[in-house]
Each structure stands twice: as structure tokens, then as C-alpha cells.
Design brief:
Helix content: 40-55%
Strand content: 15-25%
Order of helices and strands: HEHEHEEEHHEHHHHHHHEE
Structural class: alpha+beta
Largest sheet: 6 strands, mixed
Radius of gyration: 21 Å
CATH superfamily of the largest domain: Beta Polymerase, domain 2
Number of helices: 12
Shape: globular
Number of domains: 2
């Protein structure tokens, strides 16, 4: 068990881990996010990951929440992963419990480490979660073994695959995000602008993180984290992206020019790092 700071949030996380460890189907319990990284602030919740071999019955999970009480609880959520969220009554701390199937997360790690399969944005986020998690309970050392596997270096074929697919879709191919944004601006379709800009930025950051051989930390505080983690960054990124986001409510030709400038500077960085922006692949 890792020696985490004895904050009220971590004390609660440890108590909950002890409750969940009583279920035979629980393989491991770990805390991730800001509580594990030391970046927690007054508004940070507890991200508690429960790795299971079978589903924990809802009534048993509800009993864990009821034991301390909750000022609000939304249990058995299926919007993303299976999860339970509640606000702990004694402390006021928000608890976010995520249930991940153990074989599924093993497969997610194999997808990037062995098969080198890129995603459209956030490719290495699960890998990052595993590597940065702090173990609270680990039946038979399963999670420790998984973390040891996650500690391996960044595979070069994965790096090249992430850059190839995510860079191409920024503006190099006909159905690129940039082309779709140009059409949306022409039509004054602000919902489409918002949707496509978010997708473009997801792929943009996937390229930047892969270029730096850094694991993608997720969407929170992303500019701040990129500045800290990625020494190879496109010039002007910290100014361009906030300007694009602020202007997305009334985009015009100047806004599109700034978007192209953002991508021009990414291309320049890729070229300086040995990639050909016209193919999205390393130069021969």
C-alpha cells in the first residue's frame, strides 16, 4: 500500500477501499486523478477505481454509501463506465467510484503496448491512469503487476501510429476537422463549430503528447499540464488555443486564419522532429 498524504479525502478513500475489499470479486482498488498526483484542490473529488472480476450488486454498493450517509447520491450510472457518485455527508467530499472489469483494462493496456492501436484523441489516457494510480487494495498483487507492465517505455510504433492518424484528420484529408469547421463557419452553425473544434483539439493534443512520448493525462487543466510535461510544443500554443475557444461563439475568417496558424505551427514542429506533414509519417 502506498504512503499517501493523510488528507480527509485520502482517509475517506482508504475507508472505502476497505469496504470494497470485502467483496471476493474485487481484484484491486486504486485512487487516481488529482488525489493521487498531488494536484488536488478544494473542489477536487475522489476518483476511486474498483477493478472487478464480476459485478458488485447494487444493493451492496448502496449499503456502503448508506453507512456514512450522503447529501446526494446518483448510483448505478451507465453514461460512460459503470459508476456510483455521491457527496459524503460527514465531510462534504464528492466521491466518484468507477468500476472497471479487470480483463477489460488488461486488454486496453495491450491495445497500446502490444498492438500499437491509436485512438482519435486520448489514446494513452487509460495507460496514464494505470501508471499514475495509487494502490489502496491489491488482491494477490494483480494491480502491482499491471503497473509494472505499464511502466515500460513508450513504443515507437505506437507514437508513429498516433501521429499518423490524428495529424491527418486535423486538415490533411478531405473530411478533416478543419474542412468541417470551414463549412460550419460558412453556415453559421455554432453547434457544429463547437463539436468539431473539440474533436480537433483532442487529436491535436494526442499528436503533441505522442511527439513528446508522454502519456495523455486527460482533459482537465490540459494546457497547464502540456506546458509542464511536453518540452516540444508548437510555438504560440498557449495563446492560440484560448483565443480559438473564446472566438468559437462568433467565428469568422480571422478565426479560421488563427486555426490554420495553430496547425501550421504544429506542422513546423513535426517537420523539425523528423516527420513529413504531407504524409503525417516519419521521413524516410
Amino acid at each position: 500500500m502506498n504512503d499517501l498524504s493523510p488528507t480527509p479525502s485520502m482517509a475517506l478513500a482508504r475507508e472505502l477501499a476497505g469496504q470494497f475489499s470485502r467483496f471476493a470479486q474485487v481484484q484491486a482498488v486504486a485512487v487516481a486523478g488529482s488525489q493521487a498526483s498531488g494536484r488536488a484542490d478544494a473542489s477536487s473529488d475522489i476518483d476511486l477505481y474498483i477493478y472487478t472480476r464480476a459485478l458488485i450488486p447494487l444493493e451492496a454498493r448502496r449499503a456502503i454509501v448508506a453507512a456514512r450517509g450522503a447529501s446526494r447520491a446518483d448510483l448505478n450510472l451507465h453514461f460512460w463506465d459503470l459508476g456510483d457518485e455521491w457527496v459524503d455527508l460527514p465531510s462534504g467530499i464528492e466521491v466518484d467510484v468507477i468500476y472497471w472489469d479487470a480483463p477489460w483494462i488488461e486488454a486496453q493496456l495491450a491495445r497500446v503496448l502490444d498492438q500499437h492501436q491509436p485512438g482519435m484523441g486520448y489514446t494513452t489516457s487509460f495507460w496514464h491512469t494505470l501508471r499514475k494510480s495509487q494502490i489502496l487494495f491489491d488482491r494477490a498483487g494483480w494491480f502491482q503487476s499491471l503497473q509494472a507492465r505499464a511502466a515500460q517505455p513508450y513504443p515507437e510504433p505506437l507514437r508513429e501510429a498516433i501521429i499518423a492518424i490524428n495529424h491527418a484528420v486535423l486538415r490533411r484529408v478531405i473530411p478533416s476537422y478543419t474542412h468541417q469547421l470551414e463549412l460550419a463557419v460558412r453556415r453559421a452553425d455554432l453547434i457544429s463549430v463547437n463539436h468539431r473544434l473539440a474533436a480537433l483539439l483532442a487529436s491535436y493534443f494526442d499528436v503533441v503528447y505522442a511527439l513528446n512520448r508522454e502519456l495523455h493525462p486527460g482533459e482537465k487543466r490540459l494546457l497547464e499540464q502540456t506546458a509542464a510535461r511536453c518540452p516540444r510544443r508548437p510555438a504560440g500554443m498557449e495563446e492560440d488555443i484560448p483565443a480559438l475557444l473564446r472566438g468559437a461563439g462568433a467565428p469568422d475568417d480571422g478565426w479560421l486564419a488563427r486555426l490554420h496558424g495553430l496547425l501550421d505551427r504544429l506542422d513546423q514542429l513535426l517537420a523539425a522532429e523528423g516527420f513529413d506533414p504531407s504524409t503525417s509519417r516519419p521521413r524516410d
